[in-house]
Design goal:
Layout: H1 6-15, E1 20-24, H2 31-38, E2 42-47, H3 52-57, E3 68-73, H4 76-79, H5 85-92, E4 101-107, H6 109-122, E5 125-130, E6 141-144, E7 150-153
Parallel strand pairs: 1-2, 1-4, 2-3, 4-5
Antiparallel strand pairs: 5-7, 6-7
């Protein structure tokens, strides 16, 4: 797997300050999650249907830098309605520790509100990039990267 494209590198850079992360909708492109794990971060990536590419990118143990990547099957619209963070941690197989950030790559408008709600349940930051033709439908601040990519911060 080669390095992520500029838009994904911008997201990785914006997420660098966070230690424990959750990726919403990993799909068939686990490059951001893998890059973060390689930087020593603990990442849990999920999607309603976990792809073979995501499974292949996941590691059971730690990377040489102490990071890890796990993938699980879950639905953000279901997780966003959880009563508390314990229910989310159980669904994602997380320990009792906190989550620093919830993020997504190319997050479609219809999943932005549930993603922000999930971050709120976890008391975590929420960052994402949107599909190229869509504007955010949630309140955000914009962080422009040198590549021209905009990373949106909702919390």
């Amino acid at each position: 797997m080669g390095p992520p494209p500029p838009s994904e590198r911008a997201l990785v850079g914006a997420l660098d300050p966070y230690e424990r992360l959750i990726e919403v909708g990993v799909g068939r492109r686990p490059a951001v999650a893998r890059a973060l794990a390689d930087r020593g971060r603990e990442v849990v990536a999920f999607d309603v249907d976990v792809s073979e590419a995501a499974r292949d990118a996941a590691t059971e143990g730690r990377t040489p830098n102490g990071g890890s990547l796990r993938v699980v099957a879950a639905d953000v619209t279901v997780l966003a309605t959880a009563a508390d963070d314990r229910a989310v941690r159980n669904a994602l197989g997380l320990d009792a520790g906190g989550v620093d950030a919830v993020y997504a790559r190319n997050l479609p408008a219809e999943l932005q509100r549930p993603t922000v709600a999930l971050a709120e349940v976890l008391n975590a930051a929420c960052l994402f990039t949107a599909l190229g033709f869509e504007e955010p439908v949630v309140g955000v601040s914009r962080r422009a990267a040198a590549s021209g990519t905009v990373v949106y911060a909702a919390r």
